[in-house]
């Protein structure tokens, strides 16, 4: 474990706050929604979150259709570093990346968004695996500018300091911050369109609305929502995958919705499975759960909940093989369920 450093508060307008080139010539400026920071290097939007642990950070990012930042290459590493500088990450805060240990050595980690862990930027001597006898199972990025020269580029300053380098540390380190990241595609503006000559007769034709869901999604009239089942995943992986499709992990508001989701699976797949619901525990009580959108459980079908340190999520049993079909059970958020399920609004009115 190396000594922790923060950043000096610097004015960066002439250095790293703008990246105009998009790698190949000029491109449209990237625009992000309010509260997000746009960085053109990888055309991504970033948002800082604080005061959560790593198991909950990806869930919070998922509410915005984002994931805790993973790093796939040097350009992404620069963007995440630059965002930490712009956000003025405090000296006392650990700037966490979205990774957890699964093995040993420099490649003995995995990104919690499911991407391959095949790029690293470790500080010399890291990862050290343990500190004061405690296993170091998370990764932070140094946001440090002791010798920062505002006349030089971000790349030159990275070469002169450990800025952007990684260090392994205990996941319980506090305070800690995370960067939510979501990629954006540039808007493509076509040529000007000139209206045709006005016809002498105008005929109005009603265009068929088409299916209420996009290809690969399933529809049910009961909830008037679209659903998509995923392969085996943890809750965080489901949140990340659903978020990439502008969807959320399924949240059930009534007994009718509960049965509709079960019927949808059995009609299309006819198998016995368990799947995560989009909820997390917020207290120590048996029913202290909330949906990932922050709303309370106005309906629940929880069967004999177990109050344990690790069972902070909910799963739905589908099928009779378990002898407890349609009920909910509290389970570890890191469990590998047989399926995940995303939900999203319909494309258009079905009336």
UniProtKB/TrEMBL annotation:
The keyword Signal applies. It comes from the Eukaryota. Keywords: Signal. PROSITE patterns: C_TYPE_LECTIN_2 (PS50041). InterPro entries: C-type_lectin-like, C-type_lectin-like/link_sf, C-type_lectin/snaclec_domain, CTDL_fold. Residues 187-207 are annotated as: Disordered. Coiled coil: none annotated. Residues 1-18 form the signal peptide. Pfam families: Lectin_C (PF00059). Residues 41-171, 222-334 form the C-type lectin domain. CDD domains: CLECT. This is C-type lectin domain-containing protein. It comes from Mesorhabditis spiculigera.
